[in-house]
Structure formats: C-alpha cells, structure tokens
Amino acid sequence: MSKNIMKSYDIREIERIIDDYHKNHPALTGTKEQIRYELLATYGDLCVINFKAMMLNPFAMGKITDYMDALNQALMWINQASLDDTDENLSFELSERRYKLLYSFLDKYAYPYSVICSGYISYSRKRFTADVKRKKVIFNLSKENDTAWNDMLRERMNTGDNNFLELFNPVKISVALQNLREHVHVDNGQLWYEINHDILEPFLEIACNQWDATKTLPEYWQFDLFSLEEYRQTWIDIAALCYIHFGSLFTIKDPKVRWENSIIRITKEDLVSLIASINGLKRKVVENIVEYLIYDYKIKNMDVMYQPIIALRKQGLLIAPMLFIGANPERNLLSLVSLKNKDYEHSKEVNNLENLMVEKIQSVLSKNYFIVKHKRLGGRLPDIDLGIYDKESNVILLCELKWFMAADSSKEIFAREDDITHGCEQQEMVIEYATKDKLDFIKKVFGESTEQDVDIIACVVAKNNIRTQNDNIPVIDELTLINLLSKKSLGEVCSIIKNHKYELDMPDNCLKTHKKVRYAGFTFEIPALCIGDK
C-alpha cells in the first residue's frame, strides 16, 4: 500500500515559484499599453466601490491602500512582460470579462504577492526567521528583532488614515458634491462635467488641506526645474481635478459606464494649459512638473505613487484619481527626487534640514542648559550634531540627527534603517570617547569644568519613526523628544530615553498575530498587529 508523500520545499525554491506564478495569468494578453489602461481603469473603479464602503465603515480605507500596493506591483509585472509595447488598436472599451481578469490580477495576484515580498525582504535582512512546513511558510520575528512590535505599532499609528478621513468631512464635501452633481452628465457612454470657479474652489481647498496635513519642508525650497511652491500649486490643482472626476463617478448608475470612465484621459497639452490657467504659473514650469509626474518605466523600483500619471504613446495621459487623492505629496516628491538622483538644488537643501531640527529642539530647551551644535571632536570621530548639558541634573544628552521623510514600503524602511544604524554606530564611538575621561570631554565640548560625576546619554533623533536593530543606542523621533523636553527636566528625559520609556504602550485592543496570505498554492504567515476592528 503506497503512501501519498507531500513534497518538501526550500524557502528559496518557494520564492522562485511565486516570482513566476503571475506570468501565465490570462490578463497578460494584448499589448502593454492596452493592459495598462485596463489595469488603471479597473483600479479606479475598485477605489470608487471601496470609497462607498468607507463612508459606512472607515476601516475599508485599508482596502484602498491595499489596491495601491497591488497596482504598483501589477505595473512592474507588465513592464517586465514579453508583450508588444505599441498602442496600435488601443481600445478604451472594457468588457466585463477583461474587468474580472484585471480584478483577479490585482486582488488575487499582485496584492498577496506584495505582502509576501515584505516577508521575504525581512527574512533576507535577517529580521524574520522562516519555518517551512511543506507548503506553509511561517515568518517570525528573530530574537534580535523583538522590538519590531513597537516599530509596527508606531508605523500603524502614523499611517495617516485619520488625516485622510478628515479631508472627507461629510458636511464639507457633501455641499461641494451636490453643486458638482448639477454639472455632470453622461453622453454616449462618456462622462462630462463642467469646471468653473464655483465648482473648482471647494475642491482646491480640500486638496490644499491634504497637502498641509503632511507638509514638513520649508516653503522656500528649490529644485532644478521648479520651486517647491510651484510644485505645490500644480499638484494641488491636479488633485482638485481628481477630486472632481472622482466625485462625478458617483452620479453614474451603470457599472460599465462607471468603470470605463473611472480614470481621467487627457492630452499633456490640455492638462498643462488647464493647470496654467488655474494657477497662473508659466506654462513651461507647469509642463516640467507634469513631465516629472509621468511614470517612468525605465527607473528601477519606481512607484506609481511617486509618478501617478501614465503616458500612452499616442493617446495622451491617464490619471487614476485616487493616486492623487490618497497621496502624501511631499513625501512622494522627495522619494522621486531621491530615485532620480539628479537634482543639484535639492542636494543643497537637504544639508539644511538637520539645522532646522536643531532649531526646533533648541526652541523648547531651558536657557540654563549648555548647548553645542555641530561640534567637531577631531580625528576620525564623528561630529556632535546637538549636545545638551544640564549642570543641575548632572546629565548630558548627545544627539545624532537624521532627517528623512516617512518610509512607505519595506525597501524604503530598510534603506532608512541602514542610515539610522550608521548613526547609532557613530554615537557608540562618541560615547566610548566621552566616557574614557568625562571631565576632559565636558571641558573640551562644553567649555565647562565640574567635579561631579556626569551621566552621558547618546541617542539618534529621527525626523520620523523608523525601525532600528541597535541595542545600545536609543532611537527616538523628533516630535516625541520635543514633547518630552518641553515638559520635563533634562535628567528626567535622559532617564526616559535610556530606559526606552518613550516607546508606545501596546493598546489593550492590540493583538500580536500573523497575517495569513495564500498564493500560488502556498500559505504564508507574516507577523502583524491587529488593532481593534482593523
């Protein structure tokens, strides 16, 4: 009597299988241009459907962000596919069959794959361990990475969902939508709406609030092809058009007509002319910004959230409104500039950002403290970005400052973590030097003499929360440090930092668990936090 023996798989063998699994999906037929259009239209319609659900259940917002990740992964797959790359015979009609195929490609393939990728990236970086049991892969936090639960909580609490929902204040937007509804109609299956000052103004305000909700950069910043203010004005104007188009879709009752009109189709010339007429900027400046926002398939690891405009070869531009409506515009701009790595003006401005952090921290410090900024120690030792000495408490806080925008993906998180880790290593060098002869260090750095034993604490201060693997040097975000320094003595603050008492407490409704994902015949379990009903 024979036994049915199930094959055992190696973790990397499974990785190769899932990397190729999408290639035979029936959605990948036709030209790349056709599939991109159909993909974007399907994504746009799914956003409308889930936005309606979000009005009744705010937690449905998570599905919209899931689809953003899925769209980005699906576009990468299309770029890599061996398909015709012309726009010959491009059709803007979308059959129900193709809609279902593209939905499957997004929801059943691209999204689960993107989640699994985060597990594999963490495993490759030795943040996760992996236990393979036949066709099940269970990722767990490594012993050295147990603090990642706190990191996950910080990231979860700073996703910006609340700010996003506030932009859609029902009272504020219902008036704007009601006014818009009177100027929307469908003619021969084509969505039409009027754009005038009265219609545009409330949506410009909403888009402006969206920008302001997450802004951190100085308004005077310059880039090679435009200023930050010019980019802000242009981005807000395009976003307002996206709000108008998205709102218009809710007036369409026929599902097929809705999904065929779910994205904006416009020529580059018309878009530039329209935006320039709204904000009064020079046409060339607006054109530079629009071109900067066009998705570049040739840049490795490009994210469609950074460049949310898809260009067709002959048929103009495609814009899925939610890619603007759901964006963190400044963060996406800096990520894009970093990927392009060719902006001279930006590189100069970045050097000033840590000075701004110093100024913000210094503004809440007691005038009785001794403060040093950008103090050189000589030799191969790193500089001290900010040193604070309180003779009354007999404590010194040494800060290494790290300014960067919040991360939005596993790759970005680990890139930020590498920078943080380097900062921690530098602080270890400073602490070793300082504690060899504390009195000499205090005299050299602060110009003060003391006979008291002084407690010296070093930390890394990050503009945004980020993960870290260093056990010796605490990492604290700028806002938390400022809040502590504004309310407590330096001695109390140093004790809190030293003992990691600034970490968020796990809420009572927070469960440490695993997210289960099924894909390509395998089941993956990835560490995750479940908070409340999310």
From TrEMBL:
Output this protein's name.
Uncharacterized protein
Q: Which organism is it from?
A: Pseudobutyrivibrio xylanivorans DSM 14809
